[in-house]
Design a protein that fits this description.
It contains 17 helices and 12 strands. By secondary structure, the chain is of the alpha/beta class. The protein has 3 domains: 7-118, Probable tRNA modification gtpase trme, domain 1 (Gyrase A, domain 2); 129-205 and 393-442, tRNA modification GTPase MnmE domain 2 (Four Helix Bundle (Hemerythrin (Met), subunit A), Up-down Bundle), CATH 1.20.120.430; 212-384, Rossmann fold (3-Layer(aba) Sandwich), CATH 3.40.50.300. Helix 4 runs antiparallel to helix 5 (137-147) and helix 15 (397-418) runs antiparallel to helix 16. The two termini are 15 Å apart. The protein binds guanosine-5'-triphosphate and magnesium ion (MG).
Length: 461
């Protein structure tokens, strides 16, 4: 990709619309616009009305905006032409620009130029891609924050501390014979661990942060007839899965999409788990186990209207081992059939965190909708990272990997320091950590990685 080229693309989505935007960026952008609209008096950052004529014949009436370098999206000369949104017309306009010497932009090339010209760092460029692809408002908001530079800002003090740390160690080595005080082992360990813990916490937020960007899998589980399919339908607010009084109704895993606190969630209804005799039901249960193994969150559905059996307890303790489980005791519209002894056994089997002061299950009725709002809220609460309100939330795998690698470099340094390694060896680890943070924001990035990042954009961005 040659930045001396002037690139052109349709910036609005394919299809028909009221308006369509064609964008040019590069040194010849203005000259090309003037060739197509002769006599147009372009004024910086202003929209100008123009009649687009070919051989004296009117093709369209358009608005042309000129963004002179460097105060433009790409930091190059940019021309935006708003025409009427007919695909034929827009393609013809692009053709006219090509004819005047522009070339077609590659996917993401406008944003790539903005990055290469220092208008954005890599996390901001990625955020633009995320913003375009957002499916929920929460995704869009997070992307917008990052586009504004929130991640880069959160990294800034860390980078500053790291640089300062490096400078002090370097000074200790270079001026060992002078009066420069050498950092003590304790002091070094303290500083390194402080930076490491912040990096580790940021990297760890990806475990949940990725759900915002990529979505989460929420699987319902429980014994047959507990009311999983009924609850599935309630959560979706549609009669999607078959419900019957017969145990073993659901055989296949059924999935549907919904949103919880802005997180795109795939909800999976599964076959009830029990010692089944029927081969098809056993196959269904195999699929249930596969789904549960993949699930980010499991909703265990218990039947409050039937006495608990040993099989129920076995299932409870099995599912309670999974990393994230929410428990619902269904059929609260009916009298509870659990004996006091069963109830206390259940409390023992389900020992994970629960809303304070309450039993570790939520009372619901899939039949009349009771407790559904509380269940929905609790599921959302379990999915939304707690760091969301307080700190920066990592949603992107590439970013998480660099943070992990930087934290690991500091961990290596702490270990080396403990073994009284020379300061030169400690510095190697610190430089490695710094390099990871630079790669995260794109200060030092291999060409091939850049290509990968920007090619996931659409043409015209
Ligand atoms: N009273 C009452 N009945 C319910 C409730 N939820 C489900 N049921 C009934 O319980 C029976 C089983 O419901 P399903 O939703 O099919 O149960 P399931 O867990 O999907 O069962 P399998 O697919 O066999 O594993 C049906 O007759 C439902 O109408 C509830 O909250 N209250
Ligand atoms: Mg079912």
């Amino acid at each position: 990709m040659n930045s001396q080229d002037t690139i052109v693309a349709i910036a609005t989505p394919p299809g028909r619309g009221g308006l369509g935007l064609v964008r040019l960026s590069g040194p010849a952008a203005r000259a090309i616009a003037l060739q197509i609209f002769p006599g147009l008096r372009l004024r910086p950052w202003r929209m100008q009305h123009a009649k687009w004529r070919e051989n004296g014949e009117l093709v369209d009436e358009v608005l042309v905006a000129w963004f002179p370098a460097p105060r433009s999206y790409t930091a190059e000369d940019v021309i935006e032409i708003s025409a009427h949104g007919s695909p034929v017309l827009l393609r013809h306009l692009v053709q006219a620009c090509l004819h005047q010497g522009a070339r077609l932009a590659e996917a993401g090339e406008f944003t790539q130029r903005a990055f290469l010209n220092g208008r954005l760092d890599l996390t901001q460029a990625e955020a633009i891609g995320d913003l375009i692809h957002a499916q929920t408002l929460a995704q869009a908001r997070h992307a917008a924050r990052q586009m504004e530079g929130s991640l880069a800002r959160a990294l800034k003090p860390l980078k500053h501390d790291l640089c300062e740390f490096i400078a002090r160690l370097e000074a200790g080595i270079d001026f060992a014979d002078d009066d420069v005080s050498q950092l003590g082992r304790e002091e070094i360990a303290g500083a390194a661990e402080r930076i490491q813990s912040v990096l580790t916490a940021m990297a760890a937020s990806y475990a949940q942060g990725r759900w915002l960007r990529e979505g989460a899998l929420l699987a319902l589980a429980g014994r047959p007839n507990a009311g999983k399919s009924s609850l599935f339908n309630r959560l979706l607010a549609m009669e999607r899965a078959l419900v019957a009084a017969e145990a073993g109704t659901t055989r296949d895993v059924i999935t549907e999409r919904l949103q919880l606190a802005g997180i795109p969630v795939t909800l999976a209804d599964t076959a009830g788990l029990r010692d089944a005799a029927h081969a098809i039901e056993r196959q269904g249960m195999e699929k249930t186990r596969e789904t549960l193994a993949e699930a980010d969150l499991v909703l265990l559905v218990l039947d409050g209207a039937t006495a608990l059996t040993d099989a129920d307890f076995a299932l409870m303790s099995q599912i309670a081992q999974m990393p994230r489980v929410v428990v619902a005791r269904n059929k609260c519209d009916l009298p509870c059939a659990w004996s006091a002894q069963e109830q206390s056994r259940a409390l023992e089997a389900i020992h994970f965190p629960c809303p304070s002061g309450q039993p570790p299950w939520l009372e619901v009725s899939a039949l009349n909708g009771e407790g559904l709002e509380a269940l929905r809220a609790y599921l959302a609460h379990t999915l939304v990272p707690q760091s969301e309100e307080s700190g920066e939330w990592i949603t992107n795998q590439r970013q998480a990997r660099h943070l992990e690698a930087a934290a690991a470099a500091l961990a290596r340094m702490v270990a080396a320091n403990r073994q009284s390694a020379p300061h030169e060896a400690l510095l190697v680890c610190l430089y490695a950590a710094l390099q990871e943070l630079d790669a995260l924001t794109g200060q030092t990035t291999a060409e091939d990685i850049l290509g990968l990042i920007f090619s996931s954009f659409c043409i015209g961005k």
